[in-house]
Each structure stands twice: as structure tokens, then as C-alpha cells.
Specification:
This protein has about 300 residues and is α+β, with helices and mostly antiparallel strands. Helices cover about 30% and strands about 35% of the residues. It folds into two domains: about 140 residues, Aminopeptidase, CATH 3.40.630.30; about 130 residues, Gcn5-related N-acetyltransferase (GNAT) (Aminopeptidase). Strands 1-2-3-4-5-12-6-11-10-9-8-7 form a twelve-stranded mixed beta sheet, sandwiched between helices. Strand 4, helix 3 and strand 5 form a beta-alpha-beta unit.
């Protein structure tokens, strides 16, 4: 492509179905062309209608009626923003992403969030080059893993129970997230399980012999079952509970006829990585997180 003929930028707090389809189509093309993974959370965004309408989260660049560039902001309960995006291969090196990112930074300046993560597939050289030019510094990486094979060997913990969470469990979920993910329960929005269920994410509280020992979040999207936020409280670790929660999670997703089952795990979480590999999950991609921080005045 020699030039952009009819540039048009569209900003939105939430996605409508037409925008969702435009972004999804561009995402699928970029993923196939570049052989990378993009973490855009589109299905979650389409369903989620709870966001503050005064905040811009969707940044779209059109050439006429064709979407050629996109950046999205995600904020999952905590204060830190997550930013990921893409540009159509034929429109790269034309300033599309730089223009959109300048608007993202303007939106960030309006918010109280001190930190912003910029995400890129570890294999995306253009993505990593752009991020480094912003001055962001490497923070961490996350593996995406898919289950290979049909079965996982169960354990003897038949009394372990996954109970679907209700809004009464909101404080328990916040308490566990603070333990597993170093999230300050006093900052950000509390996660309401019944609202999450409306967005396609079911939260389960893990109990054994009447005691709460952990939790897990299960998502269903486009025939893929996702396992997120799995954790076991410190006093109950090294007893096989994590494996049993994972096994029961897989069983729940298979009961919903999921064609594929995936999860994400921090690269530095070696114990969890060993567990997932031993249960038949294999690493398929790596997402790198780079952090930008506002100057503290």
C-alpha cells in the first residue's frame, strides 16, 4: 500500500458489534500473517457493558471503510492498564500505530493509573521495536498453553469441590487475588462473580472438607475454554489441590463441549508451569509485558 487515502480515527468507550467484527477480522489476518498471538480480550469487551462511558478504551484507525489499525485498553479490577494492538501489514511504517498510541497516552494522562503495560508477542519484532522506542522497560512474560491429548490422570482428592461463586464471595475473591497476584484489594474495582458470569466468565471457589482452599476462573469463548486465576492458598499448598482444581476445571469445560482448552501462566511461576506440563498442557506462545510509569510528582 503506497498511501492512506481516506484516514479516519474512531474512539469509543465500548465496542459495538460492527466494530468488534472489524477488529476481529483484522486480528485474524495479522495473527495468520505474522504467526503471533494478540491479547485483545475482544469477546469480554463486547459483552462487558459496565465500563465508565467517560473513559476511552477503543482506538480505531480506518482508511475509508477498512480498519487498518487498532489499540485497546484493558483494566481488570486493578489500577494498571494493559495495552495491545496491531496494524494491517500493508499499512505499516505509515505512522498508524504511533498516531493511535499518542491518543492512548492522552487517555492515560487523564486517569489516575500510574502504570501501563504494553504487550507484545515475543516473536513480534515490529511490536517489540515499537515498545522499546516508547521507553517502556521489560517487566515480565506470560506463557499461553493449550491442552494436548484427551485425558488427565485424576488424584484421590474426590472430596475437593468447586462451588460456583456468588456476589457474597466478592471479598474472598479479592483476598485471594491479593495473595496470588499482589493486587491491593483497596485499589481498583471488586470483581462481582455474577456480573462476570454475564460476560462469559464463571468463578469457582475451591473447598475441601468445608474449608476454602483456593479458586479458579473459567471462560468460554469461540469454542475455546480458558482457565485463569487458578490459585491455592499458601497453607494448603503441596498437597495436590492445585492439580485437582485443574483437573476439575478441565472436566467442567469439556462438559460444555469446548474444542480446545487453554490457560496462561507467568514464566517465572516455575511450580505452576511444571504442574500444567505434567497435566498435558504445552506452551504455544509467549507474551511479553513492558511497563511505562508516570513521573511521580
Amino acid at each position: 500500500m503506497d498511501q492512506i487515502k481516506n484516514p479516519r480515527i474512531k474512539l469509543a468507550s465500548q465496542l459495538n458489534y460492527r466494530e468488534y467484527e472489524d477488529i476481529k477480522s483484522l486480528m485474524e489476518y495479522c495473527v495468520k500473517n505474522d504467526n503471533i498471538t494478540l491479547k485483545l480480550e475482544l469477546d469480554y469487551k463486547l459483552i462487558d457493558k459496565s465500563k465508565n462511558l467517560n473513559k476511552i478504551n477503543e482506538f480505531m484507525f480506518y482508511d475509508g471503510g477498512t480498519l487498518i489499525g487498532y489499540i485497546g485498553i484493558c483494566q481488570f479490577g486493578g489500577e494498571t492498564l494493559e495495552v495491545n494492538g496491531m496494524v494491517h501489514p500493508e499499512y505499516r511504517r505509515m505512522g498508524v500505530f504511533s498516531r493511535l498510541f499518542s491518543l492512548v497516552k492522552e487517555e492515560w494522562d487523564k486517569r489516575s493509573s500510574r502504570d501501563m503495560y504494553l504487550l507484545s508477542d515475543h516473536q513480534s519484532l515490529p511490536g517489540l521495536e515499537f515498545i522499546k522506542r516508547t521507553g517502556a522497560y521489560y517487566d515480565n512474560s506470560e506463557y499461553e498453553m493449550f491442552l494436548k491429548g484427551d485425558s488427565i490422570n485424576s488424584t484421590d482428592l474426590n472430596e475437593l469441590r468447586l462451588r460456583k461463586a456468588t456476589n457474597k464471595d466478592v471479598n474472598e475473591i479479592a483476598r485471594q487475588n491479593a495473595v496470588y497476584f499482589d493486587v491491593d484489594p483497596e485499589k481498583g474495582d471488586l470483581i462481582l462473580p455474577e456480573e462476570e458470569a454475564n460476560r462469559g466468565v464463571d468463578i469457582y471457589i475451591a473447598e475441601f472438607e468445608g474449608a476454602v482452599i483456593g479458586k479458579v476462573h473459567l471462560e468460554v469463548s469461540n469454542g475455546i475454554g480458558g482457565i485463569y486465576g487458578l490459585g491455592v492458598l499458601p497453607k494448603y499448598r503441596s498437597r495436590g489441590y492445585g492439580r485437582e482444581i485443574l483437573i476439575k476445571s478441565v472436566e467442567l469445560l469439556k462438559a460444555k463441549q469446548m474444542n480446545e482448552i487453554m490457560l496462561q501462566v507467568a514464566v517465572k511461576n516455575k511450580n505452576a508451569l511444571r504442574l500444567y506440563k505434567s497435566c498435558g498442557f504445552e506452551v504455544t506462545s509467549t507474551m511479553d509485558y513492558y511497563r511505562l510509569s508516570k513521573d511521580v510528582k
